[in-house]
Here is the input.
Amino acid sequence: MISFPNAKINLGLRIISERDDGYHNIESVFYPINIFDILEVVKSNNQNKKFTINYSNNFQTIKNDLCEKSYNLLDTDFNLPPVNVYLHKNIPIGAGLGGGSSNAVSMLKILNSLFKLNLNDEQLLFYCKKLGSDCPFFLKNKPAFVSGLGDEINSSISISLSKYKLLLISPSKFISTKKVFTSMKNKKILINNQIKSKYFVKLFNEKFINSWKENLKNDLEFTTFSFIPELKKVKEKLYNMGAVYASMTGSGSSVYGLFLKHTDVNHDWKKEYNCFSFSLD
Here is the structure.
């Protein structure tokens, strides 16, 4: 059984509060985009090893792969048969695009179907929350206002970017989300200066997109840019090319520009970075 897990971008990302457990409550809008991995799961006759995974597209292994965690969660409750998994990676790793989370949720859905577990969306959501903060979003995989740890999803938000295309630039440099949060020096100022949630949500209307450059921020950019200064230059270049809006997604390290469809986005970055360009229909 084959699926095509997609990536996402963050439209804005606000730190709302620091929790007692050391994590942070955030607010953001997650938007699915057309970059896809390929995930295949087949039944195996190997009774000595229940889970085997093979990677392609220049990956030999992925540490702490969430596909295996997905299998183990369901295996604990349902004693699953052995499987062979094949994962072709197109979504850059550690890039703020949610590729690992998307793979994990696709894995849950495949196993649910392949072994006729008959789990409904509410039950699948329970497992998604155990997998990680971004995972609940990929269960519905629609534009959504996201809060809490990133695990509280409101898919009733109505925002379409069908008039635009995206140019996504993903460098090979990586910084962990944990390091970004623990290194932030302006955290308290950001938290104290946040506008109310109801005003933040109102920004996500097509008629306000031209105001996003001034009003829609990713609070993690300043810290990530201090570790990878070239990202700031990439963002500036996207604006110079005519982007209506440009931002880092997640904690990085990918940066994207939102362009009107008629805009020429030819560029010379392919030698240095992973680059993707596509419409947002």
